[in-house]
Specification:
Layout (H helix, E strand, L loop, with lengths): L8 E4 L5 H12 L3 E6 L2 H15 L3 E5 L5 H15 L4 E4 L14 H29 L2 E6 L12 H21 L4 E8 L5 H14 L3 H11 L8 H11 L11 E4 L9
Helix pairs in contact: 1-2, 1-8, 3-4, 4-5, 6-7
Bound molecules: nicotinamide-adenine-dinucleotide.
The site of nicotinamide-adenine-dinucleotide has 29 residues, from helix 1, strand 2 and helix 6.
């Protein structure tokens, strides 16, 4: 199936590794030109070179921290200068720190607001006028299954991803008539560095092996395995496609069946 992405310009934030990178790879494999960003230039260069080599598409990069005004503006300007537009925006960022309600003072909440909520809001604000004008656009937001079922011990993620989801759902309704869709992608237990680090930390804390932690997690998942980043990237490619033009305002989990709710 031709997804109609050849020649489209995509901006994927937080894409030097993990889910963001897998999304960038999936879009590039469908022929989209890319700007990818993350904070560190070295890992980004490696990602850019690898994606260019494997797909042959035009991939550019910019070191930018999406938790800051300057970083958001830089990522957007870089994409605009390079391609003149952004057709597909993927907002992703590192996860906010874990912890209980009593763990964090407001300054930590504030930084998490900037990292998780503000980055999605402000990047959307920048790409939207051009998408409306061209009457075509795809906004994809990486959130978490925590918006369907809160995860213990990650107060900031549970709270702020819910805010992102409310914003995305409402924006989707406001801009649907311009041919612009907004959808959220919800990961759970996908095999990325972040998950490997979290599993190692759990093993050290509980005095068990990383394999024990993995087996415990796998037992909770109907598929009995972690997801692979490329399986998450595949959803992004579809939601960005021509074929997904009538899908908007949705929050779609890629979780091997982990969420047990009906809807
Ligand atoms: P990861 O740590 O493997 O990769 C994160 C990427 O984001 C890296 O490229 C990093 O350089 C970049 N990054 C981090 N902070 C940034 C910032 N301020 N500005 C720009 N780039 C930044 O993480 P991941 O597993 O790919 O997760 C991506 C997102 O999905 C996170 O928000 C995470 O909390 C969420 N999530 C992941 C899972 C999972 O199973 N992997 C599950 C639920 C939610």
């Amino acid at each position: 199936m031709d997804l109609g992405l050849r020649g489209k310009a995509a901006l994927v934030t937080a894409a030097s590794r993990g889910l963001g990178r897998a999304i960038a790879e999936a879009l590039a494999a469908e022929g989209a030109s890319l700007v990818i960003c993350a904070r560190g230039a070295d890992a980004l260069e490696e990602a850019r070179d690898a994606i260019t080599k494997s797909t042959g598409v035009d991939v550019d990069m910019v070191a930018a921290d999406v938790a800051t005004d300057a970083g958001i503006a830089l990522a957007w300007q870089h994409a605009r200068d390079r391609y003149g537009r952004v057709d597909v925006l993927v907002t992703n960022a590192g996860g906010p720190p874990s912890g209980l309600f009593e763990t964090h003072e407001w300054d930590v909440w504030q930084h998490a607001v900037e990292l998780t909520l503000r980055s999605a809001v402000e990047l959307t604000r920048l790409v939207l006028p051009g998408m409306k004008e061209r009457r075509w656009g795809r906004i994809l937001i990486v959130t978490s299954i925590a918006v369907k079922q809160p995860v213990d011990g990650v107060m900031l993620s549970n709270s702020l991803r819910a805010a992102v989801t409310g914003c995305a759902r409402t924006t989707a309704n406001e801009i649907a008539r311009y041919g612009v869709t907004v959808n959220n992608m919800l990961p759970r237990y996908t095999r990325t560095e972040r998950v490997e680090q979290l599993n190692a930390a759990t093993a050290a804390r509980e005095g068990i092996t990383v394999e024990d932690v993995s087996h415990r997690i796998e037992a909770q998942i109907p598929m009995r395995r972690l997801g692979e980043p490329r399986e998450f990237g595949a959803l992004a490619a579809f939601l960005a496609s021509e074929q997904a033009a009538y899908i908007t305002g949705q929050s779609i989990a890629v979780d091997g069946g982990w969420i047990r709710s009906l809807l």
